[in-house]
Amino acid sequence: MTTTSLILTACLVIGVPLGVCRAEVAGGATLGDFPRLPPAWATPAWIEYAAHVVASEARNVPAADIVIACTILRDVERGWHPWSLHPGRWHGFGRPDKADRQAVHDALLTDACDSVPNYRYVGNFNDAKYWRRTGVIGETAVDLYLGPSGSAVVGVR
Prior knowledge:
single chain, mainly alpha, 3 strands
């Protein structure tokens, strides 16, 4: 049991009024700083799993980390099983860094996804060419996220 869960359990057991007991979490934030709690399926192991997908799909495009994380979260909310995203829908599985993990946390615990469009598909240029060639998407406008090295992530609404 973590320190945070011990503090929260203690608050519940001794009957502290709602909003009075605040537990410290990583980064100095408190649980009360987040608009919502993560869903039960979003275990630490799942967060790491999702961060691996973010790492691969948004590689070299930091602005797309949150886009990928929010799209993964929405996939699960739309009915995908949390553990069947790779290789069913997502085909990347890279080594995550701190920013990849942070994007997953932000998608789960904050309102960061409110500003991310609800994409049908998100991927790189090769993915977009494949979707077009196979008829998955027609001629359409896309959102483009560019990384500093020229890498890109394409979002299809």
